[in-house]
Amino acid sequence: MRSIDQIICLWVTPICAVLIVLAFIFFPGFMPPMSPTMSETEVAEFFRENVSAIRWSMVTFNLFDVMFLSMFVVAGVQMKRMATPSPALAYAFIGSTASVVTLFTVADLMWLVAAFRPERSPEITVLLNDMAWIFFVTPVGLFASMCGFLATAIFLDARPDPVLPRWVAWLNIGAALLTLPSVLSVVVLSGPFAWDGVFSFWLRWIVFAAYVTLMFFALRNAIKRQDAAEEAIA
Amino acid sequence: MTAQAAALTTEVTSVPDRYREATIRDQVWLFWCIPGFFAVFGLVFVVLARVMPPPAPGKSSAEIIEFFQAHGFTIQIGFVILIIVTGLFNILNGLMTVHLKRTTHGKTFAYAFLFAQTVGVTPGLLLPGVAMLAGALRPERSPELLVTLYDMTFLTFVGSLGCFVTAYIPLIAAILLDKNKIFPRWFAYVSIWNLVTEFVAVPVFFFRDGAFAWDGAISFWVDTAVFVVWQNAILIQLFRTINRQPPGMAYPD
Prior knowledge:
The structure holds 2 protein chains of 2 kinds. By secondary structure, chain A is mainly α. Chain A is 74% helix and 0% strand. In chain A, helix 2 (40-49) packs across helix 6, helix 5 packs antiparallel against helix 7 and helix 7 packs antiparallel against helix 8 (166-179). The longest helix of chain A is centred in the C-terminal third of the chain and has 36 residues, at 198-233. The radius of gyration of chain A is 20 Å and the shape is elongated. The two termini of chain A are 14 Å apart. Chain B contains 9 helices and no strands. In chain B, helix 2 (25-48) packs antiparallel against helix 3 and helix 7 (161-176) runs antiparallel to helix 8. The longest helix of chain B is centred in the middle third of the chain and has 32 residues, at 106-137. The two termini of chain B are 29 Å apart.
């Protein structure tokens, strides 16, 4: 247990992920996702009728969403162990991860503000709800860049026994490419690319969940091998 | 042997990490993404999204509604492109962090620069983007809300000052206090001018017209001119810094 720090940081993420999944299941806006074509009256009614479910689920999301960062930091630490020519990619990666989790928080706060006074004029509730969805679904470039930096670093890792195996690089490239189409959710109000659509909602969040799960196992393995290697030297 | 050559030899001979390749190829690849990123940035802001030069803060409600209706589609295309490439901004931050850490007092300054720049992305780039997109998505919204989104777009875009003040101060300090001569000193002086522009932009929160409004001769044009000079300066000196470093060097952890 030499890397107890990394192990703690790594395990924070799956524990919080379980709570986030619960929050998502209980958030009335996700099951099924709210359509961008809902009228002002429907949106206002939605917030009035579901006010306590929205508050409790979004408060839970608020408390735990940034903890994805904890696992990404472990990935950053592992990137710095890689035999890449310089640590530039590791720093770029860490920079992008901070922005990715900030977006979750801002989206979450917009929903909570909308639910705080559900009796306010419907057009304002619609605007807050729009901004929440745009922050939640659209800014995929930061996640994609983070995946791209990690994948590039894995390909450049010249160790005979690489820190992270090649399949992790392909996982990152795949995750980036599959989430990028959801950027179109700010252009269309219906269809597969709208924010409640097959690409922008279902595919995107399933890919993200699979990504976090597989990254967890890849990083757990990397820490184990780091400990074993350092044990052998000591 | 000159002092510089002596310093070079010590750095080359002290390579503790045997895994590190004696090469800078990752940095060169990454470097060439930055001018591309800046070019896309310019295309989006100037040609597509109509954010630069910014429309006047003194427009009437009717003119603001007309702005969202007339430019809605290009605003959407522009910001979709911008959102896809946003993260590439961190390439510049990553490369700068590597070399800031090589300066005499670089360890702390490098992280201060990296994190302040990273924080700045959300209020300074994504928030204006989302506000603009929210306006373009439903231009039939009430005029009051469209005006609010319009103000939110330009005040956050021009006025996210503190993030960049916090980034430029450690950058300038790291270069001026450095004895390893990693960056040229002239770049610190250019950065001081860029730091000053953050303060020159303060009046945008007080004025709706004139030289200090967000589209004004000073708060927009002078500031943008200085920023463009700074962008070119950071690229030129970074390119030279990358190519001047001794090959196979061990980077500070």
